[in-house]
Design goal:
CATH superfamily of one domain in chain A: Jelly Rolls
Shape of chain A: globular
Strand content of chain A: 15-25%
Oligomer: homodimer
Structural class of chain A: alpha+beta
Helix content of chain A: 40-55%
CATH architecture of one domain in chain A: Sandwich
Distance between the termini of chain A: 44 Å
Largest interface: A-B, 5 and 4 residues
CATH topology of one domain in chain A: Jelly Rolls
Largest sheet of chain A: 4 strands, antiparallel
DNA sequence: AACTACATCAACCTTTTTTCTTGATCTGCT
DNA sequence: AGCAGATCAAGAAAAAAGGTTGATGTAGTT
């Protein structure tokens, strides 16, 4: 069952009894989503916190001039959402779209509230998640600010080698803050070097 | 301006003064939507009643076994929505997707309520819409129940000749209640006959 | 038992769309 | 002037969407 995966994941962060685990997991709903479908769209409230069981997602914003800016990718064992929309329950400004046929586990906002109220350990889990996420973003921002396009690409390759084959290049470029064309040239240069 | 089109349309149904017309039209927002984009998705409330200025839409449901059932097509001067979701403001069960790049005029639920409260004529308009829609669906159901696949196709051709070139065949098949393959054969047979 | 109306499955083809690449030209900095 | 990177345009390559066909199956009629 696909909730086993979330269970295994959780065990890395909190120690839960069988009943606690059961309670936690039963708050999630499994959903299958086909490639290129949106699970979050601007103007609609992001109703769920979602855990990726299988598949790949991209979170991005569209600027006024039409340019897309990718904020996050997510594959197996990652979480996705328009986080601002979710925690404040305000209309989303981001798109969250599948890059492949995917299976997810979704936790509704009010169920999350209930969990946190019910048991302190659940609260702990969400706190840890948030702190790790925040720390991650800090590292990312700092790195991006201080490195060239090529270095950012190299770094991505190093840290997320398993993402590279699964995300389209235009999306990766927009994540790394450069144009598709420029990324194409960087890759081309690298592979020529290697051979 | 694209609201002129809605204006012309309205004039077929109700006689409004300039101010009334202005009030009515100003409750709509113009939106552009690219091909293959969803304006309504299951689990999200259908927030707008939408009038098609330009383009084409398909409304469909996905059954548990994954089969798609097309409920409605809409092109210029038609309305689309998940009607159940809209009027009850409950989560949608249907998808509404563009078949072409489109321009629409959207009326938010609460604005519609305000209009109806403000002026009896607006109420009349919505009543007429609903009644015509209901009558149309009655005819459709009766016809479908009593005719063969080929007859249903012929009938569609006769009643909506301008839809045929614009909707994909798999969508039309699922609207007419047959498989893509079977529709393909029907068409093939017909065109052979003609030549 | 044969016939009709239609479904299912699989393979395949065609067309359209998406994604990626490349060359040329430009810009703002150092 | 030289570098990092953008923009624009044209193509090529890859993937997806849409459509066709043959084979085979089935339920209900005649």
């Amino acid at each position: 069952m696909s909730k086993d995966q979330l269970k295994t994941y959780l065990q890395n962060f909190v120690a839960l009894s069988n009943e606690e685990m059961e309670q936690f997991l039963s708050s999630f709903e499994e959903v299958k989503v086909k490639k290129r479908q949106f699970i979050v769209q601007p103007n609609f409230v992001n109703q769920y916190r979602t855990f990726v069981v299988k598949g790949a997602f991209r979170t991005y914003a569209v600027a006024d001039n039409g340019q897309e800016h990718t904020l996050q990718f997510a594959i197996e064992n990652w979480w996705v959402s328009d986080f601002n929309s979710y925690i404040y329950q305000h209309p989303a400004t981001l798109f969250v779209v599948t890059l492949e046929d995917s299976t997810i586990l979704q936790l509704a906002f009010n169920k999350e509230q209930a969990l946190k109220k019910a048991n302190h350990k659940f609260e702990t889990f969400f706190r840890i998640m948030a702190e790790k996420g925040l720390a991650f973003e800090h590292r990312r921002i700092l790195f991006d600010l201080t490195h060239s396009a090529e270095a950012r690409y190299e770094n991505f390759l190093l840290n997320f080698p398993n993402f590279v084959q699964r995300v389209p290049q235009y999306a990766l470029a927009s994540y790394l803050g450069m144009t598709t064309e420029f990324l194409s040239r960087i890759r081309n240069k690298r592979t020529r070097k290697k051979s």
